[in-house]
Amino acid sequence: MAELQYTYEPQKTSETILYVENLKVYFPLRRSIMDVLRGRPRLNVKAVDGVSFDVRKGEVLALAGESGCGKTTTGKSILRLTPITSGVIGYLPSKKLIEELNSIPGVNKLTQDGHVDLNSIPEKFFKPFRAEIQMIWQDPFGSLNPRRTIYEILEEPLDIHNVGSTREERYDLIAKMLEAVKLTPPEDFMYRYPHMLSGGQRQRIVIARALILNPTLVVADEPVSMLDVSIRAEILQLMMDLKKKLGLTYVFITHDLALARYIANRIAIMYLGKIVELGDARRVIETPFHPYTKALVEAIPEPDPERRHVIKELPIKGEVPSPVNVPSGCRFHPRCVVLDQRPELAELCTKKEPPLVEVERGRYVACWLYAKPK
Amino acid sequence: MSVPPGSNPKTQKSIKIVQSLKPIFGEIWRMTPGKVAIVLLVFLIAMSIVAVTIIPADFITKWESPTYWEDNPVVAPPCWVSSFGYKVPATLQAYTSEPNQVLFEGNALTAEQAFNYNLDVDKLPQDIYIKVNAPLLCYKNQYGEEVRVTPELRVVVERPDGIVFEAWHVTLRYAENITCGSLLTYKTGKESFNLASLINEMLTKYNITVPEDIIGYNKSHTSTVSAILRTTIRSELENRYLTTPSVFVTPDRVSVTLRSTEQNSTLSSFKITLSELLAALKSDNVDTFSRRVVLENLNNAVNNITVLLSSIQLATYSDFVDDLTNARNSLDQAIKWSMDPDARVPGDLRTRMQDAREKLNKYIETITSTTELIYPVVTFKPLQGDYKVTVNLVYSGLPTKPEQVNMRIGFIVKGGCYGILGTAAKGIDIASVILYGTPIALLIGLVAAVASVMIGVVAGIVSGYYGGLVDEAIQRTVDILSNIPFLPLMIIIGSIAQKSFTGEARSLYIILLYLVILIIFSWGGLAITVRAMTLSIKEEPYVEAARALGASNTRIIFRHIFPQVMMYATAALVFRVPDAILTEAGLSVLGLRHGWPTWGSLLADARAEYRYDIWWWIIPPGLMLSLTSLTFVLLGLAIERIVEPRLRTL
Ligand SMILES: Nc1ncnc2c1ncn2[C@@H]1O[C@H](COP(=O)(O)OP(=O)(O)O)[C@@H](O)[C@H]1O
Ligand code: SF4
Ligand SMILES: [Mg+2]
Which residues of A are less than 8 Å from B564 in CB distance? Predict the structure, then answer.
């Protein structure tokens, strides 16, 4: 049996469709003229501050955490929609694309299997990646242009990537896609405007638009959080069916642990721009190790209606600090209740950042409770 | 899956554009301002179409030339004013190319045409004249020489009071280089008008004479006095009635008086001068024969004047002229005898006598030829009734009857009103300019608005979408432009343009220059708004989604940003149309003319002629400017109301 890792390293095998290594995304804060004159340093919003994980072919990896912890920013970095500060996003393209890449100068090839550094691809050669990596958006209202018909919205990706040479061909593709997301008969929906559809129907359109180009990796950013509770399950079921049918891999962003347990294979728990726990979704949620994960799990609403009214005391204190001034040492320490019981850890927790150590096979936690300082 | 018939995406798309316009039109029509705006707009467009189809294209360059409007009365109100009780003489512009009568008789070709005019108000027409176009005829005489025959023009006027007189009688002339058969053109004017004949007829008809008690005993003065009367009438008709309209006047009041007392001081000064001479000659006691004759004559002269002075109130014209002539004759004798050395008259006295004689003689001439003494006052009034004007064109001395003689005879009475909107200075037909001004105004307004909105939209989108240095440059440019005072700059550039542009296309260049400057100064505000809209649309999730799909910047701009901005820009465009029209009018009124027939030009003319009191000259262009502005403001408001709720969803 191999040794457990002291610090987490993402897996980079031929089964790894994507890995993220030490990703940092900082957003500079605007300084006022007075600040500039006083010579104050430029402050950054550390939205993502050293995140590593890998995604394996055909799995669902959940990225979970409170809102504002950097999930969306991580997702957008994968789609190269936001400039990253540092780190590597290694992606394994389709065979066909790997061949094409050989003729492009300056591409950083990371592994023998063909992982490429997405951020090393010149903009003009990035287009084929857009077809392979897609995103399902959180907001079914804002992410559809209110002035375009469903037909036009679904035609746009085909138009951009020159899919379908004739109008009939495109029409067929669009109709098929609408049927795939269960909007039937398709002709009823094609010439409607988004505002003529319900929230659930719109989200189906968002899904259809993401899948019409046959992507391999799909980043779904809280795809059901803005929908009525009653239709969430339908949409999730649709996503899972499509995944199976089309052989997709999902990076599933959510703040809902119950939902993550239901659909994800593995889960990464994020706190303030960093992953604090990573592992098999069921195991992480059933027996959380990290004090933050424990608090999150405690916060999951009781499925039993009898006990729903009991106000639980959560094992957490205070508020989420600003990502501009990240606490020293363990970034969770101002809120950690363990510190109250284990004061001897205080020195370590407030000074030194805990590494993401492997505590069981495939289970990683970033907490001094589980790691020995080297 | 197959495509259902009739839902081909392409036809679907074009149908959709039409269908999406229809509800917008319906929405505009449902609002009261929108309805008014559409009605006004249709009216303006109809006017433009009519203007372009019925008015000849050269109007744009010729409209300011006085000959273009030659037959129109000047600054005349519209003819419908007469239905509101404001009586004006009618205007008549009759042309014929087929005279009533064409005769060839005794080697003469005579064409005759009669015209009628009815003067039914107590006001005079501005002018009356005949215009003829007749060919120069030629034939070869027995020596084989070419003989040229020009027609003789006679115009006889029959007035309602029975006076018949020959108003014009001229032989048309031709320039040496003119070829046979080419048309000679002649317009009768006041130079050739036979005013003397009219005056004669009036004197006889109305028996206008100088009363005998004013002339006095010496009937031989009657003709001199009549000549003065005649001159007075003539100058009255020439100066006050501008000669040709005299056709329509009849004497109203005639009085002839003697201005006797006014002569007192002149006569007294003659008496004093002569008495002083007499005293001076008496003082040296020379007593020769010649001297005595001198003294006696001088004395007679003094006596003549003294007698006249003493009875000046009762003196007739004959008294004045005869007494003064006697005095002058005596003075002549005195001077003659003073030349005799025996008379021993000193040189300086002789000179003084001669001076006195000159003055006296001049005075006599004055009272016998001017109204200094005899004072006729003649007033006239319009003569109402039917006038018959017979025009004769006679070619005489033709050996044979010519085959075909094309002639055109025109009879013009410039009355006191014209057309449906009246005329401005030079006889400019205001209705034509108002009509022709409509397409020009719409064109100017649309060109400027479209250009300014296009620049504003492009600059705003580029600025907002790309940001950075381009954004900074565009925003600073807008800042600078909005801080330059537009009007003063425009006036300076306008006046330079007035002087520096010449030639055929001058007007076009000036207008284009105005438009360019206006466009340069007007896109800024829109650019700022569009930039703000672009910034907000750029952050929309669906734009990010498009980017995730691989959409290029161009695609995002044209598919996602531009369509939304365009809705707003359309309203902005409509609001901007009046700007250019009003600027053009304003600059024209300030004297920065361009030369095109615009509403602003009409107002500018009125200002240049100081005729702001002429309502029919001021109100139509003013009204059209206001109506056009109103149209586009109302339309803009209606469009804005449709666009606004969608703007809020951005
Ligand atoms: N474009 C941006 N500019 C500045 N700050 C940003 C930007 N996008 C996200 N942030 C900040 O980064 C942090 C993480 O945001 P996000 O990734 O959206 O969190 P999550 O999706 O987990 O709710 C938040 O504090 C957010 O305010
Ligand atoms: S490292 Fe320390 S502060 Fe952080 S979670 Fe673990 S015990 Fe709490
Ligand atoms: Mg988010």
Answer: 147
